[in-house]
Amino acid sequence: MSVPKAELHLHIEGTLEPELAFELADRNRVELPYADTEELRKAYQFEDLQSFLNLYYELMAVLRTERDFEDLANAYLARAAAQGVRHAEIFFDPQAHTKRGLELGTVVEGLWRALGSSEANHGVSTRLIMCFLRDDSAESAMETLRAAEPYLDRITGVGLDSAEVGHPPVKFREVYEAAAALGLRRVAHAGEEGPPAYITEALDVLGVERVDHGLRCMEDPALVERLVRERVPLTLCPLSNVRLRTVDVLAEHPLPAMLDAGLMCTVNSDDPAYFGGYAGDNFDAVRQTLGLTDERLRELARNSFLASFLEDDEELRGQ
Ligand code: ES4
Ligand code: ZN
């Protein structure tokens, strides 16, 4: 559906479509362990978050130069614009690239070549959010934050992603304190595969303004009550939840119950190249399968701008 919307949960590396992956592999002379795009697509059968992450990190090998990151971001922005996205807050995973020997500047400058002209070229305003890999150490996250200081004019906030269970938010307390001291906005993945207690910890220990996923809050009525009272936005990703088997089938997704409970939900695409759809596809899927009313869909679109890091005057232009 192409209702104007903001996308608040989108990993730019998760927008790498098989065709672009092979094009970049050729350009950079990187061998991929798949014969062609068809064989690669067959690998998109995931058991859980980790089985997806294995492929997600493997394919990043084709991203080598500023131009690669620019092409990746431009391809995403064009697709997003075609599905009604007017504003995108884009995650990237610096450590996934620096551990392969890339400079942080290659990643940020490359992305910026696309993001800096996105309003003019695609009609999409953007923000960049740097995520720490929670299955890497807190020291590595802190080094990454320090390395990012020269680029802070281009980075709006920090996030926390990758394998959740066993890596509670508290592990990154000091990093988030340092990020806040630098004036960065804070979000974190919590309650995707991890327990409701991780959501509480992300709010209380990391001081996050939004919770990415937050799906498992539904197991804790007191937490739901708090999230409603404090109007904490949740960036849900319905197609992702199905592909990673967090919910069995889309028809059983808790989104309608979450809206009925008064939670401030948004609908997003997460890793659209892997999970079968961009933001508009996620809207279409929940409309068709969950039978949301037009009023609910308008609420989701409105929430996406309200929960964004746009200033009030910018937000109005988006609607
Ligand atoms: C991710 Cl779906 C998801 N969850 C956690 N971390 C991620 N990184 C990229 N996609
Ligand atoms: Zn995510």
Automatic annotation (TrEMBL):
Keyword Nucleotide-binding assigned: no
Protein name: Adenine deaminase
The family this protein is said to belong to: Belongs to the metallo-dependent hydrolases superfamily. Adenosine and AMP deaminases family. Adenine deaminase type 2 subfamily.
EC numbers: 3.5.4.2
Enzyme class: hydrolase
Binding site for Zn(2+): 9, 11, 189, 270
Catalytic activity from the UniProt record: adenine + H2O + H(+) = hypoxanthine + NH4(+)
This protein's GO CC annotations: cytosol
NCBIfam families the UniProt entry points to: aden_deam, PRK09358.1-6
UniProt site (Important for catalytic activity): 213
Keyword Hydrolase tagged: yes
Cofactors demanded by this protein: Zn(2+)
Molecular function via GO: adenine deaminase activity; zinc ion binding
One of the GO BP terms on file: nucleotide metabolic process
Residue positions binding substrate: 271
Active site: 192
Cofactor remark from the record: Binds 1 zinc ion per subunit.
Name of one Pfam family that matches: A_deaminase
Purpose of the protein: Catalyzes the hydrolytic deamination of adenine to hypoxanthine. Plays an important role in the purine salvage pathway and in nitrogen catabolism.
